[in-house]
């Protein structure tokens, strides 16, 4: 059997120090004497192969989180890695070794979506550690495949650790948390990625955590990641994070000291350009060549696991053709995923609309025909994008109905045309509403408002949001449209990567959808949901608060009063909530003890008149703990009208335990309460859903 670690050590033993150091930056140069081609480690695959031309653009990570479906997420990730291999194989033939052309993907982002103002929150799987861990694990398995030493591609768990904004403070901020929050919230998904997922790469965060810069933290990278969890892959810095050590964190006094600190504590590769100074660090005695050897060996192990550098190729991967990129079966999966991500938050009976009964349908709003609003960030270039307007038009065309359209307002500015007066599209929107039998208004955000610091869209606003209310003139628009509609149905769709709210709209529109960033097929999926071609089944992976005033200070990393697990107020819409066009009931729930990992068995029946999917959620309330309740189990089911099925739901093996201050799992003594339902067991959830867990 081919020993990847022995082969890597053999290769390293033949290199000079200068050659070794040349492999420790993201754009590693070729070493012809050792038959090692150049390789750029930097590639992105958050929800499809990104930044390298045409690829299937699946729903953004936060949208996929709304499915609560590990199997679907793994299926999507498998398709993403298939496209990654197809592009890589073609590009190798063409001799293209540029950035975004490799098969080491710096994804998934499994940070906790701690604060809805964080611009990068939509890259994550939401605010719950268990949901984030399970979906992150599914994505890692889909990217990497089943064999540890024969990887389809290499996944990367990021950003380690305790990282979630503010974006404009990340280069100098120290995230201070107590041990309870550290272990029970911030590290849980990373532990799962390492121990269960065998993730190949971990990326350090920009910030400090408990005083140490994350990309050079002995506590995080040595004590926890390698010694405690047994991680045997490699660590990469976030991009240009090493220079923050001396420029912003001030924990070192020079670039060479920063390089030495990072490598000494286990950061193997520098996304950036400082690691060539490792040669100088060895000469000055700040590092040993043996420490360099250790890092370079880990890097070569990854390339060997991928079937490169003379390692045996996995023909199932190396033979994937370019024709698998953007292929029809991936388009079909993309549409399936988009349908599963749509969340229905309110329906007073107006939905689903019947296109055959409507002569004129009004479509209004800055996101109604926005292609950018479909994509999210870290995205590829889809060959086809279907906006909500285009999706509605396709359905209306079949029914013989006419569609009237108005942008209504800009997504952020006070006018659409620079020389016009404020609200220059408002009259048009009101005119459309008056002339329509039903109105669909599509509002929210896009990459121009929330994203990463200094990315191509959000650099003018730093990536984060100042608040969670509808921006610009959108609140004014929805009020005017509801008034102009004169009692006719108004269906509101919010496309955003995070909690964005209007209490007035929630109270006054007839129906409300949350779509997140639904991918290139998203507009079709949203339109189909509105017109009842399928029943919505998405669930909120984050809490929708009533206002910005409900949230603690952005740079406070304590979890007190954050997320459904700790928030003591009443939100607008709770975590785990989402309506259906059908009705379901549960019966005969029971716990089946099975050693340290019990499970729940329950019968689910569709008692409505429509075929539909649902998500059964299990929450635990434990005595003497900080959490109000925590998600500890979930299962998806699709049932025809009248159909019943028995579900067996494995519970989180740590459902009845908590980490202590040393990161050791300890059982919580006393009686635990489990609730099994289609949402949380609280008054608001029951009131909104007319369902009692």
Write the layout of secondary structure elements.
Blueprint: H1 4-13, H2 17-22, E1 27-28, E2 39-40, H3 61-65, H4 70-93, H5 129-144, E3 156-160, E4 174-175, H6 179-186, H7 188-195, E5 201-204, E6 208-209, E7 212-213, H8 218-228, E8 234-236, H9 244-249, H10 255-264, H11 278-283, H12 289-305, H13 315-318, H14 328-341, E9 343-347, E10 360-364, H15 372-375, H16 388-399, E11 402-406, H17 426-434, E12 438-444, H18 474-485, E13 490-495, H19 503-508, E14 511-514, H20 522-530, H21 563-566, E15 584-592, E16 599-606, E17 612-621, E18 630-639, E19 644-650, E20 657-659, E21 665-667, E22 673-677, H22 683-689
Parallel strand pairs: 3-5, 4-6, 5-8, 10-11, 10-12, 12-13, 13-14
Antiparallel strand pairs: 1-2, 6-7, 9-14, 15-16, 16-19, 17-18, 17-22, 20-21
Helix pairs in contact: 1-12, 4-5, 5-7, 14-20, 16-20, 17-18
How many beta strands in the DSSP annotation? Answer: 22
- Identify the CATH homologous superfamily of the largest domain: Glycoside hydrolase, family 3, N-terminal domain
Rg: 25 Å
Alpha-beta content class: alpha/beta
Physical arrangement of strands within the biggest beta sheet: 9-14-13-12-10-11
Q: What is the C-level CATH assignment of the largest domain?
A: Alpha Beta
Tally of helical segments: 22
Average of the residue pLDDT scores? 96
Largest sheet, in brief, is: 6 strands, mixed
- CATH topology type of the largest domain: TIM Barrel
Give the CA-based shape. Answer: globular
CATH architecture of the largest domain: Alpha-Beta Barrel
């Amino acid at each position: 059997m081919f020993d990847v670690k022995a082969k890597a050590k053999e290769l390293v033993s033949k290199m000079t120090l200068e050659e070794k150091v040349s492999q420790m930056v993201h754009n590693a140069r070729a070493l012809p004497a050792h038959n090692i081609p150049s390789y750029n480690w930097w590639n992105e695959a958050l929800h499809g192969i990104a930044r390298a031309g045409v690829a299937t653009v699946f729903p953004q990570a936060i949208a996929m989180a709304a499915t609560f479906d590990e199997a679907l997420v793994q299926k999507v990730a498998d398709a993403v890695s298939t496209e990654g291999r197809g592009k890589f194989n073609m590009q190798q033939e063409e001799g293209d070794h540029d950035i975004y052309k490799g098969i080491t993907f710096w994804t998934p982002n499994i940070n906790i979506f701690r604060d809805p103002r964080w611009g990068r929150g939509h890259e994550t799987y939401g605010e719950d550690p268990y949901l984030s861990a399970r979906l992150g694990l599914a994505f890692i398995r889909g990217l990497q495949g089943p064999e540890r030493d024969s990887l389809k591609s290499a996944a990367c768990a990021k950003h380690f650790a305790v990282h979630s904004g503010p974006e404009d403070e990340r280069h100098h901020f120290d995230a201070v948390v107590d041990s309870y929050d550290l272990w029970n919230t911030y590290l849980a998904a990373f532990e799962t990625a390492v121990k269960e997922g065998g993730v190949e790469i971990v990326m350090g965060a920009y910030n400090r955590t408990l005083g140490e810069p994350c990309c050079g933290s002995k506590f995080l990278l040595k004590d926890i990641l390698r010694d405690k969890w047994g991680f045997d892959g490699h660590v990469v810095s976030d991009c240009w994070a090493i220079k923050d050590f001396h420029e912003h964190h001030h924990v070192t006094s020079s670039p060479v000291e920063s390089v030495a600190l990072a490598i000494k504590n286990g950061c193997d590769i520098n996304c950036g350009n400082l690691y060539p100074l490792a040669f100088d660090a060895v000469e000055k005695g700040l590092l040993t060549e043996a420490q360099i050897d250790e890092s370079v060996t880990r890097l070569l192990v990854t390339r060997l696991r991928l079937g490169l550098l003379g390692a045996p190729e996995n023909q199932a991967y190396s033979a994937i053709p370019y024709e698998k990129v953007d292929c029809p079966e991936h388009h079909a999966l993309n549409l399936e995923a988009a349908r599963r991500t749509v969340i229905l938050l309110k329906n007073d009976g107006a939905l689903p609309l019947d296109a055959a009964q409507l002569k004129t349908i009004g479509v209004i709003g800055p996101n109604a025909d926005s292609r950018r609003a479909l994509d999210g960030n870290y995205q590829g270039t889809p060959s086809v994008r279907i906006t909500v307007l285009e999706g509605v038009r396709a359905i209306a065309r079949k029914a013989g109905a006419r569609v009237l359209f108005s942008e209504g307002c800009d997504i952020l500015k006070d006018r659409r045309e620079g020389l016009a007066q404020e609200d220059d599209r408002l009259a048009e929107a009101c005119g459309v509403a008056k002339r329509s039998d039903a109105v669909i208004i599509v509002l929210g955000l896009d990459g121009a408002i929330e994203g990463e610091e200094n990315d191509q869209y959000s650099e003018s606003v730093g990536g984060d949001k100042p608040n969670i209310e509808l921006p610009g003139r959108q609140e004014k628009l929805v009020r005017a449209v509801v008034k102009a509609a004169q009692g006719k149905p108004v269906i509101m769709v919010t496309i955003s990567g995070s909690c964005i709210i209007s209490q007035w709209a929630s109270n006054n529109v007839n129906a409300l959808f949350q779509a997140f960033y639904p991918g290139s097929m998203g507009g079709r999926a949203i339109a189909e949901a509105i017109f009842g071609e399928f029943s919505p089944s998405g669930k909120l992976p984050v809490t929708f608060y009533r206002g910005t005033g409900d949230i603690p200070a952005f740079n406070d990393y304590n979890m007190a009063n954050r997320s459904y697990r700790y928030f003591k107020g009443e939100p607008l819409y709770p975590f785990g909530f989402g309506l259906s066009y059908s009705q379901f009931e549960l019966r005969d729930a029971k716990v089946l003890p099975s050693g340290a990992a019990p499970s729940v068995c329950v019968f689910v029946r569709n008692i409505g008149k429509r075929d539909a999917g649902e998500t059964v959620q299990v929450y635990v309330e434990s005595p003497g703990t900080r959490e109000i309740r925590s998600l500890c189990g979930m299962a998806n089911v699709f049932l025809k009208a009248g159909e019943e099925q028995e579900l067996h739901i494995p519970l989180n093996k740590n459902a009845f335990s908590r980490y202590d201050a040393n990161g050791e799992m300890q059982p919580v003594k006393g009686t635990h309460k489990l609730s099994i339902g289609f949402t949380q067991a609280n008054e608001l959830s029951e009131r909104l859903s007319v369902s009692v867990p």
